[in-house]
Specification:
- The chain is about 70% helix and about 0% strand.
- The chain is mostly helical and about 100 residues long.
- It has two domains: about 40 residues; about 55 residues, no CATH class.
Length: about 100
Amino acid sequence: MTNENVKKVLHDLKAQLQQLESKQLHENCAAIKQEIDLIESNNEVAYLEFKFDIKGLKKCGFFDKTNDNSKHIERVCTFYGYKSIFEYSKQVTGVHLST
């Protein structure tokens, strides 16, 4: 591959990366906006469902098997030492990955 071809490939890859970054930023902004709306609405259950994998947390035993969201909210607050489940947004940064 010639030097010019390498430059062209790099240019194309950088352009693709910028497009992906732009799309990702838009998606992140939309998620943050939704999170803000849930906190402003003071809807703890909707916030719980938005921020937590309830099914997965039941499966691993963090939440009990009931569908009592108030117990799930209480569990999160107790575990993290929060007075409100909305405090989770102050503490969590980055991406959570599951395997």
